[in-house]
Each structure stands twice: as structure tokens, then as C-alpha cells.
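Entry:
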Amino acid sequence: MSTFADFISEAPAKRALLACAMIGFSNGFASAFVVLRKSALKVGTLSHGLLPGIALAVLFFGLSQWSALAGAVFAAMFIGLGSLFVARTSRLDQDTALGILYTAGFAAGYIVLTRLNIRQKLDEWLFGSIVGMADSDLWIAFGISVLAVLMLTAMQRPLLIFLFEPNVAASLGVPVRFLNYATFGIVILVLISSLQAVGCILSVGLLVAPAATVYLFSNSARALFLGGGIIGMLGSVAAFFLSYPLGWHISSTIVLVLGVIFALAYISSPRYGLFSKRRQAA
């Protein structure tokens, strides 16, 4: 058996470790918006909605990383922004539109991919294969991560006004509709960046847990962004080092570690934790 030193000296392991840090930070940073907007369930539906786009891209353009990426972007944009459009042009709310679009799309995508007989790639897209990331995947993730963090940082002040006081934001001239679409688009891009790393199924955990953990300790909305990024990065890197000796799937370990960190925060938070509430009630 090879040692961990042998494993970490190989190029795929180095790429995986770098991806853990980079994708963990960008997802954790963006998770602040998801938590403040209370849109975790919407993100979950979007993550599942990546599959039909991948299926159609593979069906029409063949199996490649670029076709899968382009298909995922198209599907996420169509389902995410399409649900906003349906909600604005009908009496349906966005959650209802999302539920219809993503479940129908996911079912169709699964049927297409199973008919194409690419079961191994299907498992990677569903649950991730961070060790299998190529240099091109890493550069794509890097570009998306930098873009997402910079845009969310630049829009942070009007974004916070929009999240807490949408009517005040509109009266102050904040482009509310643009912010709504722009931030939703950023979240979609961050989901795309983590597709190879943690897959469609697990990506929602990486995009919710970090800021949710910080939210149990801080009332500062701004702290959620940086704090979520740090927890996402440290949790993902810790999972990388834990997964090798335990023999666990790295992508699953990342989400599990972040879940454990959240559970510890929920128990130990002095103001909003489980036992603090019991003391206050007593």
C-alpha cells in the first residue's frame, strides 16, 4: 500500500487539495447569500437541475468536460432564471416553478444518461470525483471562484440592503431586480464550479453549511461572507486529509465534515445553540 506521502506527491492529489481550498472558500463565501436569503431549498433544486443539461450536452455533442460544463450551465440558468421568469409572469411562486422544472428535468436527464450507458461518469456527476479533476477543471473552478467572490464583495452593501429591506433598497435606487437575477446567477456559477468536486447531489451541503455555522455565532451579516469562506475552506481541506487514512470518498467526506462542524456549533453556540436555548427557557 502506498503511504499518504506518496499519494500527496502525485499531481491528481495536489490538484484535489488545491480544489478543496479554492472551491471550499468560494462556496462558503457564497453560502452567506444563501443563508441570508433563506434559499437553501432553492439551491438544492438547482444542484439537482444540473443533470438534465449534462445529459443533453452529452447526447448532442459527445462526452467531454467542456460539453458537460456547458450543459450544466445551460440547465442551471434555464431552471434557476426560468423559475424567476415563470413566477413573475404567472400566479405561481418561484418554489412551485422550481419544483416542476427541476424534477421533470432531473428525471429526463437520468433517463438519457442511463440509456447512453455511461454509469461511471453518471456517478461522478452525481457524487463528485475531486481527485479526477484535470488542470482545465481547476482553471475553470479558479476563474468562477475569483469572479464570484469579487462580485459578491463589490455588491455587498446594496445586497445587504436588498436582503433586509427590499422596499427601502428600491426607494434608494438600488436595482433590486438586477440584484435578484445577478446574485442568483452567481450562485449558479458557484454550483457549476463545484460540480466535478462534490457532484450534483452533495453540492448543496457545501453551499449552505459554512455560513449557517457562522450564523449561529454572529449577528453580523458581513461576517457571514468571510467566516463562511474560511469554514468552507478549512473544512474541505480537513476532509481531504481525513479521507485518505479512513478510506472514505473525498467529496462525501467534505460535506460530512462541514455537517459535523455545524452540529458542534449548534450544540455549543453560547447565544443560539441548543443548550443556550434550554438555559434561557429554564
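The domain at 4-269 is CATH 1.10.3470.10 (ABC transporter involved in vitamin B12 uptake, BtuC).
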